[in-house]
Amino acid sequence: MIKHLRSAADLDAATATLILDTAGEMAALAGREVKKLPTLRGRTVVNLFYEDSTRTRISFEAAAKRLSADVINFSAKGSSVSKGESLKDTALTLQAMGADAVVIRHPASGAPHRLAAWVDGSVVNAGDGTHEHPTQALLDAYTMRSRLGRLDGLRVAIVGDVLHSRVARSNVLLLTTLGAEITLVGPPTLIPVDIAAALSPKTKVSYDLDSVLPDMDVVMMLRVQTERMQDSYFPSAREYSRRYGLDLARMRKLPEHAIVMHPGPMNRGMEITPEVADSSRSTIVEQVANGVSARMAVLYLLLGGKA
Ligand code: NCD
User: Fold this and answer.
1) 141 is in which domain, residue-wise?
2) Which residues bind L-aspartate (predicted)?
């Protein structure tokens, strides 16, 4: 087993499949009255969050607690980070406390890689800048596999603000490793020219959502990340929705069995309409539930558990 999960590229097909299978076993636990396993009793998991988060932070906390680990939640606001303490000094503090795993979300791409050099425990990337978010990709892959039965040969469209999306990057890496065929869709300004080739040579790019939908098994909508945009990448929110938003009329172009995904948080009315987000094809709430199982599997396996 690998020691750290910094990038979806850390996972080969066998390791990724082992994590998804283990997540399946963890999910079975969620249906029980007592949702706890003693596996990580006495181990310490630190959640180190330098960026806002709802789902991911709660999900990692729930995952570690269901495995009976001691959980320390650290958020940059209200800590010595606001006094200017560096990531390295914070890391040394965690090291002194004997953290067995550090889950880190950070606005700087590459922060988890630096951290891994400073602590003895396992490092899990919970989102670093616009770079990667590997556990999101794992929970997405898990959701696709449980809804559609397979990943190999699955046709997946990832739609919208690819440029700023760590979710897109990690998904392309993981899903291609597992045999899915990816098409990135969005306005040219939000799809870097060389991104598809750099991530995986087989990845396709399209600027026309309507023409892509009839061939897809999965359509994954991305949030338009205005907080990361310094320039204007499209004329207006209305224009963006008209071309790249998923509404009911567009959703009907998908094959009958296809599912609609979104990592959250959503801009309802922008990249996805409420009717689509709340429809029976949407797996958005399921993705959140699966996130806990996927993160349990990651913590369990990284900290030395067997399948
Ligand atoms: C994503 C993130 O923070 O990278 N959300 C998440 O983790 N569920 C996507 C986003 O912010 O749009």
Assistant:
1) 134-283
2) 83, 166, 223
Question: Is 1 among the domain residues?
Answer: no
The pTM is what? 0.96
Q: What's the farthest any 2 CA atoms get from each other in the chain?
A: 56
E strand map for the chain: 44-49, 70-75, 101-106, 122-128, 155-159, 181-185, 204-206, 218-221, 259-261
- Are both 198 and 271 inside the same structural domain? yes
Q: Does residue 127 line the site of ligand 1, with CB under 6 A?
A: yes
Closest to 47 measured CA to CA, from 113, 124, 109: 124
- Tally the residues of the chain: 307
CATH of the domain at 141: 3.40.50.1370
What is the rounded distance in angstroms from the CA atom of residue 243 to the CA atom of residue 78? 42
Give the tens place of pLDDT for each residue, 172-220.
999 999 999 999 999 999 998 777 777 777 899 999 999 999 999 999 9
CA of 302 to the centre of ligand 1 (A): 23
Task: Say how many C-beta atoms besides its own lie within 10 A of residue 247's C-beta.
Answer: 15
